[in-house]
Design a protein that fits this description.
The chain is built from 7 helices and 8 strands, in the order αββαβββαβααβααβ. It is α/β, with parallel strands linked by helices and 209 residues long. The strands form 3 sheets. It has a 4-stranded parallel sheet with strand order 3-2-6-7, sandwiched between helices. A two-stranded antiparallel sheet has the order 1-8. Helix 2 links the parallel strand 2 (24-28) and strand 3 (55-60). Helix 2 packs across helix 7 (178-186) and helix 3 packs across helix 5.
């Protein structure tokens, strides 16, 4: 469950309904280059064919999202989203026209990351510099559409790093960060606002000890 949804759950405003197969919509940033776009489409095809994830539809934003990434002096990750309106238009198309019940967003991130920050992350001891702006993206879609959402960054291929941390290996070998996002969105809980007919297994704040 995405962070904003967990906040709403903890506040008692939203509930969670277990789901074994969400219809995942893949939302691609118009800023992604053709070759990199193909890589992400192939990753989605791989998840369909080998893992059974229901990637139901693909759409591209009508304008580049304009994602910017920053690290604060204290070391916290943050960033900005230039075109939140384009993000929400594309997400609504997936929901309203394709019937998608979860949204995977792939935004093009800048390749000019600080070398030391990148080296620390690849060594398994640094901050994920994209994490702050990724949270902005997923929070916005979840808040506005009440659908599970997660983000995968589109990045150019990195040079080979022999001392890569084990936890970072799968991400770099896969060329995209998308498969883990699709797999987990495929089984994400549906988000309830209390207007739905109750079902066994629905989870609300008061069900927790």
């Amino acid at each position: 469950a995405e962070g904003y949804a967990l906040d709403e759950f903890a506040a008692g405003r939203w509930g969670l309904r277990p789901c074994t197969s969400q219809r995942v919509g893949l939302l691609l940033d118009a800023a992604i280059e053709p070759a990199l776009r193909t890589r992400h489409l192939q990753a989605a095809d791989a998840c369909r064919a080998t893992l059974g994830v229901d990637v139901a539809a693909v759409t591209t934003t009508d304008e580049p999202l304009g994602v910017d990434v920053r690290i604060s002096p204290a070391g916290a990750s943050w960033g900005t989203l230039g075109r939140p309106d384009a993000l929400l238009r594309a997400a609504r198309r997936l929901r309203d026209e394709a019937g998608c019940t979860a949204i995977a967003v792939v935004a093009r991130l800048p390749d000019d990351e600080d070398e030391q920050t990148l080296a620390d992350y690849r060594a398994g001891c640094g901050v994920d510099s994209a994490g702050g702006v990724e949270a902005i993206i997923s929070h916005l879609v979840t808040k506005e559409l009440r659908l599970p959402c997660a983000h995968a960054p589109a990045l150019g291929a990195l040079e080979l790093e022999p001392e890569l941390a084990a936890r970072a290996c799968a991400e770099e070998l896969g060329h995209t960060f998308l498969p883990c996002v699709l797999v987990n969105l495929g089984r994400a809980p549906s988000l309830l606002d209390g207007s739905e007919r109750p079902q066994p297994g629905d989870l609300w704040r008061d069900d927790l000890d």
